[in-house]
Write a structure and sequence with these properties.
It is built from 6 helices and 3 strands. By secondary structure, the protein is mainly alpha-helical. Strands 1-3-2 form a 3-stranded mixed sheet, with helices on one face. It binds zinc ion.
Length: about 140
């Protein structure tokens, strides 16, 4: 991994530990987590650019990225490298979105959920198991 953190990685890694000013009366201003957690619905083009950012970071090359309503799962990957994401994800919290994206992109490298898959998930999204419990099926 490179040493450069993108804003996205900072958002993922950030623990909101700069709360010192709270006592000085800046309470709400310093609640940096609020901005991350409550992001409303994002647009398809933003979703896709998040996917591309992760693809670069994970060093994988999806052929195509699609968004459409899916009934039974959050994402799928075809044998030819075509990724499809459930458009319902656009309404989910950003860290759940990241989880599904990283999960699916990693399948380009690792086709199963074995040890390698889990350790890569852990490396890129330390809290991934928490998110996987919040969403049911990611294939
Ligand atoms: Zn999977």
């Amino acid at each position: 991994m490179s040493g450069l953190l993108t804003p996205l990685e900072k958002a993922i890694n950030g623990n909101g530990d700069n709360m010192q000013n709270k006592a000085a009366g800046y309470g709400s201003k310093n609640c940096s987590l609020t901005g991350l957690m409550s992001d409303g619905k994002i647009e398809a083009k933003d979703f896709k650019s998040i996917v591309w950012d992760w693809a670069i970071k994970l060093k994988v090359e999806p052929k195509e990225i699609h968004l459409r309503p899916m009934k039974t799962k959050w994402a799928s990957l075809s044998g030819s490298g075509r990724l499809t994401f459930n458009s319902e994800l656009l309404e989910k919290r950003r860290n759940l979105i990241n989880y599904v994206i990283v999960h699916e992109l990693l399948h380009i490298k690792v086709p199963n959920h074995g040890k390698l898959f889990k350790s890569l998930m852990l490396a890129f999204l330390p809290d991934w198991e928490k998110y996987s419990e919040q969403l049911k099926e990611v294939v």
